[in-house]
């Protein structure tokens, strides 16, 4: 703690410090010389390609990928063309730009993903230089060709090449150039001798940096800040100009007193920076130049590479990996010598407290008197977040915890959150993981992206521990990690399908948000269909199983799963797919083995494809259903001949099915149709298509009683039905004489109460009374009541001594029927005594 400021270097009003992140694991024989090196931002991986332009087929260059701590991730011989540039995408994919304009994309583990070309004309003119940049649209690639033309692709995921306008007078390689992203528009800034040009989609515009000395000479190097907001220009006379990237304002111009062109030039600034600077690197010198005209020099022992970050610059050497950054203001306030900031006093108070010194109370009193104890706690917490050394973090957080004890109304949220975040950051900073994230970078990156990166690098146990420690919901945390783990597990070729399936099931279990069908799909993509089927057995949702099974051409299994699900829509989906994919015979045979699917398909065919339904019955020799089909079809045929033909086919099928009743019923339907047609032709009765009963009713209403009687005899219509039909017909037509004759023709099978009721229904009391006398004794009371004869009803009830019937008559009596009521009551009493 006493030596925290030992590596601080003043630059204007601010301080800069260089912190060692790692001693590199790698062992590079020739260091970083003659190599293309690309390091991804946010503590990302490092790619190294030695002698990238070597063309000898006997000795190929080696492409190596390391973590930020120098731990080897993968290595493979480069078998493609000469490489001009290496860069990393926002998704940690490695982009290799070749001389012929082809861009090859590899994942972190060296697996080839895809490639694209920067244009056909590039093949002839070759790529001289290239840059990979990040814009609001994603990862982009910019190249300059041998014909001095620039081509841009602002998003490699949605490739649209833009060829920028020609730069007047530019021959060959430009002095220097950079990609600018302003207002969601990507431009190129080009230096050609003393001239500076901005290229956009349509024009090439000459620009002039404001305030640049006329004696500065040609611009030989330029650099854009991490946020694309600031620009630095280095001239041949060693002057460094800094300003806004839109070239509207100058920040400073400093004479570096270095005439040689730097190998690299990178901005070093942090959010709310007090003293932004530019870091320039030569073979043996690292120079930090601030806008205040001050500089800091660091000697370099070996070849190094600078990597611009959001809040500093990483310096990667052959033996070490360091971070150069401006010391945050809160850290300056606490650790500066003789600082009287609240945080500094609280830290000192805690030190004294640990020594059991009374000075702790003096420091605390001083803080309390100024009423800044809350500020002191917050300063210590914030400073701890910016420190890289765990011991310093602990000292600051313990001081904050100590000060918090003397506050009654202080929210612990910031303290707790920072504690958790520091534990996560310290875990990922471990050299075995190799992600040297600062707290500022972590907040910009977000926790979700950090977990994604851990998962992408296959640090699954650590990712799961982070999710559980930070209590991230399963579907966003643990489940997502397990899903990615399982997708990688199915690609392991040294394990059997059974072993992988058991391992995946044991680890994933019923984790929410993990779909076994997604894992199975990955297995199928890797050429392991049997493993995919085993994994699908663990999928609880049939709707997720079926689409993949269909894709795998496992139609029988897909149909079985759909039927087991009980989801008719899913069954229909599979059946429709099979119908389109299979020939008709195989399709029908497949359905025959699945009765539920066959039944559902038949229901569909009844509504949509009746002819297909007929073919199904034919294939199954289902004569009963074929007969039903022909009967149903006959009703859709408007022509009598067609209908009769369909019905005859139905009779034949019913006979084959040995269904005598259905065959006879169908034959009688045919006889009825012929009878109806004959009457239609003779009388114009319009009977065709009516049922037997409706036909008889129509005949009787037309007065064709003989024909109705003929139907009655021919079709053996029950007597009761016939008498009812004729009774209603004669009554409705008010043919009372015919009705009386009909009643006397023979004994009525429906009784005579029906005659009474039908006559009353047709409002003829006179005719109704004629039949009351013929009614049986049991129905006499009802008949008298139907015609409104209360006295007759009372006499009949008394004669039968039926108490219920007497009660029914009484209920119909009114106050004026007093005598009749007395008579009935006396009869009821007499019946009760007996």
TrEMBL record:
Q: How does it assemble?
A: Core component of at least two putative endosomal tethering complexes, the homotypic fusion and vacuole protein sorting (HOPS) complex and the class C core vacuole/endosome tethering (CORVET) complex. Their common core is composed of the class C Vps proteins VPS11, VPS16, VPS18 and VPS33A, which in HOPS further associates with VPS39 and VPS41 and in CORVET with VPS8 and TGFBRAP1. Interacts with RAB5C. Interacts with STX17, MON1B. Associates with adapter protein complex 3 (AP-3) and clathrin:AP-3 complexes.
The answer, when asked if Amino-acid biosynthesis is one of the entry's keywords, is: no
Q: Which domain of life is it from?
A: Eukaryota
One annotated GO molecular function: actin binding
Q: What's the protein called, per UniProt?
A: Vacuolar protein sorting-associated protein 16 homolog
Source organism of the structure? Poecilia reticulata (Guppy)
What Pfam families does the record tag this protein with?
Vps16_C, Vps16_N
Entry function: Plays a role in vesicle-mediated protein trafficking to lysosomal compartments including the endocytic membrane transport and autophagic pathways. Believed to act as a core component of the putative HOPS and CORVET endosomal tethering complexes.
Keywords recorded for this protein, A-Z: Coiled coil, Endosome, Lysosome, Membrane, Protein transport, Transport
- Membrane topology (UniProt): Peripheral membrane protein
The parts of the chain that form a coiled coil are 637-664
């Amino acid at each position: 703690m006493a030596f925290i400021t030992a590596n601080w270097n003043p630059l204007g009003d601010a301080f800069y410090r260089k912190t060692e992140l790692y001693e590199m694991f790698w062992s590079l024989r020739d260091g970083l010389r003659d190599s293309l090196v690309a390091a991804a931002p946010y503590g990302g991986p490092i790619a190294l390609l030695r002698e990238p332009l070597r063309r000898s087929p006997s000795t190929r260059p080696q492409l190596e990928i390391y973590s930020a701590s120098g731990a080897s991730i993968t290595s493979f011989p480069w078998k493609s063309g000469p490489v001009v540039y290496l860069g990393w995408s926002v998704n940690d994919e490695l982009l290799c730009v070749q001389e012929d304009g082809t861009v090859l994309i590899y994942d972190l583990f060296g697996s080839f993903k895809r490639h694209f070309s920067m244009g056909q004309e590039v093949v002839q003119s070759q790529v001289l230089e290239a840059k990979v940049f990040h814009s609001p649209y994603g990862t982009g690639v910019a190249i300059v060709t041998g014909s001095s033309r620039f081509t841009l692709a602002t998003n490699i995921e949605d490739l649209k090449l833009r060829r920028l306008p020609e730069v007047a007078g530019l021959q060959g390689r430009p002095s220097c150039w950079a990609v600018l992203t302003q207002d969601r528009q990507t431009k190129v800034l080009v230096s050609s001798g003393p001239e500076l040009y901005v290229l956009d989609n349509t024009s090439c515009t000459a620009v002039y940096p404001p305030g640049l000395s006329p004696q500065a000479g040609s611009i030989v190097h330029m650099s854009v800040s991490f946020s694309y907001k600031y620009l630095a220009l280095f001239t041949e006379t060693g002057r460094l100009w800094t300003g806004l990237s839109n070239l509207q304002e100058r920040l400073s111009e400093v004479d570096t007193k270095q005439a040689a062109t730097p190998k690299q030039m990178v901005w070093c600034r942090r959010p709310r920076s007090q003293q932004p600077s530019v870091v320039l690197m030569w073979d043996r010198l690292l120079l930090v130049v601030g806008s205040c005209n001050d500089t800091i020099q660091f000697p370099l022992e070996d070849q190094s590479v600078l990597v611009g970050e959001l809040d500093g610059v990483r310096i990667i050497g052959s033996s070490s990996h360091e971070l150069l950054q401006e010391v945050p203001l809160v850290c300056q306030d606490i650790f500066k010598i003789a600082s009287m900031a609240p945080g500094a006093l609280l830290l000192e108070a805690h030190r004294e407290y640990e020594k059991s010194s009374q000075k702790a109370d003096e420091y605390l009193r001083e803080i309390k008197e100024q009423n800044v104890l809350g500020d002191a706690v917050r300063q210590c917490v914030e400073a701890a977040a910016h420190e890289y050394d765990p011991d310093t973090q602990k000292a600051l957080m313990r001081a904050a915890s100590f000060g918090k004890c003397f506050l009654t109304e202080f929210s612990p949220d910031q303290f707790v959150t920072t504690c958790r975040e520091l534990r996560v950051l310290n875990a990922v900073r471990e050299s075995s993981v190799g992600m040297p994230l600062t707290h500022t970078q972590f907040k910009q990156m977000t926790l979700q992206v950090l977990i994604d990166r851990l998962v992408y690098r296959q640090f699954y146990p650590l990712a799961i521990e982070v999710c559980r420690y930070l209590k991230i919901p399963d579907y966003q945390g643990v489940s997502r990690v397990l899903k990615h783990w399982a997708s990688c597990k199915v690609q392991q070729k040294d394990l059997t399908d059974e072993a992988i399936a058991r391992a995946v099931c044991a680890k994933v279990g019923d984790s929410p948000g993990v779909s076994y069908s997604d894992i199975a799909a990955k297995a199928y993509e890797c050429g392991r269909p049997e493993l995919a089927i085993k994994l699908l057995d663990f999928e609880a949702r049939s709707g997720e199983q079926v689409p993949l099974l269909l894709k795998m051409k496992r139609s029988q299994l897909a149909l079985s799963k759909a039927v087991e699900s009980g989801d008719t829509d899913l069954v229909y989906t599979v059946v429709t797919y099979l119908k389109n994919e299979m020939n008709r015979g195989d399709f029908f045979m497949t359905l025959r083995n699945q009765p539920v699917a066959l039944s559902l398909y038949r229901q569909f065919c009844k509504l949509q494809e009746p002819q297909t339904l007929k073919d199904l019955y034919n294939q199954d020799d289902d004569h009963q259903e074929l007969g039903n089909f022909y009967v149903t079809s006959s009703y859709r045929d408007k022509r009598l001949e067609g209908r009769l033909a369909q019905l005859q086919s139905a009779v034949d099928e019913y006979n084959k099915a040995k269904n005598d009743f259905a065959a006879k019923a169908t034959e009688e339907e045919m006889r009825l149709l012929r009878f109806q047609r004959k009457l239609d032709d003779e009388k114009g009765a319009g009977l065709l298509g009516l049922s037997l009963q409706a036909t008889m009713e129509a005949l009787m209403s037309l007065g064709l009683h003989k024909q109705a009687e003929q139907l009655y005899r021919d079709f053996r219509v029950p007597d009761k039905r016939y008498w009812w039909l004729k009774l209603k017909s004669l009554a409705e037509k008010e043919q009372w004489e015919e009705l009386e004759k009909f009643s006397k023709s023979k004994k009525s099978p429906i009784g005579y109460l029906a005659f009474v009721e039908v006559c009353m229904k047709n409002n003829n009391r006179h005719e109704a009374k004629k039949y009351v006398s013929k009614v049986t004794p049991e129905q006499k009371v009802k008949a008298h009541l139907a015609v409104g004869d209360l006295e007759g009803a009372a006499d009949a009830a008394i004669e039968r001594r039926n108490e219920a019937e007497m009660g029914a008559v009484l209920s119909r009596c009114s106050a004026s029927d007093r005598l009749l009521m007395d008579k009935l009551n006396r009869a009821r009493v007499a019946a009760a005594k007996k």
